[in-house]
Write a structure and sequence with these properties.
The complex is a heterodimer of chains A (165) and B (352). By secondary structure, chain A is α+β, with helices and mostly antiparallel strands. Chain A folds into two domains: 77 residues, Beta-grasp domain (Ubiquitin-like (UB roll), Roll), CATH 3.10.20; 77 residues, DNA polymerase, domain 1 (Orthogonal Bundle). Chain A has five helices and five strands; from the N terminus they run E-E-H-E-E-E-H-H-H-H. In chain A, helix 2 packs antiparallel against helix 5. The radius of gyration of chain A is 16 Å and the shape is globular. Among the domains of chain B are: 48 residues, Uridine Diphospho-n-acetylenolpyruvylglucosamine Reductase, domain 2 (2-Layer Sandwich), CATH 3.30.43; 103 residues, CO dehydrogenase flavoprotein, C-terminal domain (Enolase-like, domain 1), CATH 3.30.390.50. Chain B starts with a strand and ends in a 24-residue tail after the last helix. The chains are: A alpha+beta (165), B alpha+beta (352). At the A-B interface, strand 4, helix 3 and helix 4 of A face helix 2 and helix 6 of B.
């Protein structure tokens, strides 16, 4: 049995023919759409390396069946910069040493973008840490990650205010 | 992962008919099911994708003051619904103490109720497990079992139900609306999950094809909003299942407890309602003596199923702590570390 689905990935419509319903969103992105920025860590929803935004919400792409997401809008790490201009969260991860080996970083950054959009953490580092607890970092860059999220949130807020002023 | 047929029904009745076939399973977000399928623990031949069934993603206020939560409402959306969180603070706190933000964004209300145990032997297909393969035995009995059940367990199975959400729900008399082959019926959440006995593979009272369409809280459940807490001890600060947890709701008038709601999580194959303790608390004055007595009667029949005697003492203390915090009053805002007894109190941002 084969399934035709259509997704918007990083702003571009992608029509995909799936010959197997077992394909997860993660495997679709990496193996069929050549978007390997999203990482496969545990593949079981425990590490957060595969975090992407689906319809604006952060989820674990390893635990979502692609066939079930027909019509969804997907944003991955490849879709957040504007050309050479990094997304504020990307820039903040560099400025605050929010990574070492970098494997968990795409998931951390997508999770941070989701967290900031959810607007629940405010400027409380404890709430940021709690909100980011679904993303593990084996290098232990957590201190830098928390600073990066708080800093990026501040610069996004400032940019928002400037736009609405 | 074993391959399967994929079917997306357009209506509830189409879904029920498709899922009543042998080997079929419902798929909503799949946050637990896909994990189980990847590990070979669940091997459905057909997935019936209910994630887009119309009308099941609403939160509706009922004329009797109660609330009806559609089975497809996402855990995060329910927890962050400000009216819901204000009216049922222990439920919101329980939701936010479970899993991670990514999983809460996907996981549904119905799926949360039907999530499977996290017993390591259930997950390991090389181990004997009566729940996964009836009649094979239980490797947890003589294995690593410090986190296993202390109430309601049997020789056949000592697994626990992992849900946080279900604990305050069962305390507040939640009712589950089910659509099945014979039409619509209702079951109290307290009666949805079964204790293992000799048939641990039968985890709920649901029949093939039964679909949970909504969870309802009765009007009285809102009477506890001023004094309600959920507390959960974990092996790490966040993103872990409960070792033990407790939900407590009190209605206090003129310094006396008029009515109490109490349940434990992580101790049995179902969320454990503490009705006898509720009876003791009604009419008592809120304080350590009454709370300790409530814990004693709740755990009077508890016994270790292995290396987990400590859980009985821990459950009693968490119950007393949850009652103490509930009596002190629901905080204005859920703490930075929801449900954590180790929530840091340093700094003014604790409940900012």
């Amino acid at each position: 049995m084969s399934f035709s689905i259509s997704l918007t990935v990083n702003g571009t419509r992608r029509d995909v023919e799936l010959d197997d319903p077992r394909v997860t969103l993660l495997d679709l992105l990496r193996e069929r759409l050549d978007l390997t920025g999203t990482k496969k860590g545990c593949d079981r929803g425990q590490c957060g390396a595969c975090t992407v935004l689906v319809d604006g919400r952060r989820i674990n792409s390893c635990l979502a069946l692609a066939v079930s997401l027909d019509g969804a809008d997907v944003l991955t790490i490849e879709g957040i910069s504007r050309g050479d201009l990094l997304h504020p969260v990307q820039a903040a991860f560099i400025a605050h040493d929010g990574f070492q080996c970098g494997f968990c970083t795409p998931g951390q950054i997508m999770s941070a973008i989701g967290l900031i959009q959810e607007g629940q953490a405010g400027d409380d580092p404890e709430r940021v840490r709690e909100g980011m607890s679904g993303n593990l970092c084996r290098c232990g860059a957590y201190a830098g990650i928390t600073e990066a999220v708080l800093d990026a949130q501040q610069s996004l807020l400032t940019a928002d205010r400037r736009r609405s002023a | 992962m074993k391959t399967f047929d994929y079917f997306r029904p357009a209506t509830v009745s189409e879904a029920v008919a498709a899922a009543a076939q042998p080997g079929a399973a419902y798929l909503a977000a799949g946050t637990n099911l896909l994990d189980l399928m990847k590990g070979g623990i669940s091997r459905p031949g057909r997935l019936v994708d209910v994630s887009r069934l119309p009308g099941l993603d609403r939160i509706e206020r009922l004329p009797d003051g109660g609330i009806r939560i559609g089975a497809l409402v996402r855990n995060a959306d329910l927890a962050h619904d400000s009216d819901f969180a204000k009216t049922y603070p222990a439920v919101a706190e329980a939701l936010l103490s479970g899993a991670s933000a990514q999983l809460r964004n996907a996981a549904t209300v119905g799926g949360n109720l039907l999530q499977r145990t996290r017993c390591g032997y259930f997950y390991d297909v090389a181990s004997a497990c009566n729940k996964r393969e009836p009649g094979t035995g239980c490797d947890a009995r003589g294995g690593e079992n410090r986190l296993h059940a202390v109430l309601g367990w049997s020789e056949a199975c000592i697994a626990t139900h992992p849900s946080d959400f279900c604990v305050p729900l069962v305390a507040l008399d939640a009712v589950v609306e089910i659509e099945g082959k014979a039409g619509r019926r209702e079951v109290a959440l307290e009666a949805l999950h079964r204790l293992p006995g000799d048939t641990p593979e039968r985890e709920t009272v649901l029949e093939p094809g039964d679909l949970i369409v909504a969870v309802r809280l009765p009007g009285e459940a809102r009477m506890f909003s001023a004094h309600a807490r959920y507390l959960k001890v974990r092996e790490r600060t966040s993103y872990a299942f409960a070792i033990v947890s407790a939900a407590a709701g009190l209605r206090i008038e003129q310094g006396t407890i008029r009515d109490a709601r109490l349940a434990l999580g992580g101790v049995a194959a179902k969320p454990w309602r503490a009705r006898q303790a509720e009876g003791i608390l009604a009419g008592a004055s809120p304080g350590a003596a009454a709370f300790r007595r409530a814990a004693e009667v709740t755990l009077a029949d508890a016994k270790p199923s292995g290396d987990n005697l400590f859980k009985i003492e821990l459950a009693g203390r968490i119950l007393v702590r949850a009652l103490t915090l509930a009596a002190a009053g629901t905080p204005q805002r859920i703490a930075a570390l929801p449900a954590s007894p180790f929530s840091s109190v340093s700094g003014a941002l604790q409940n900012a």
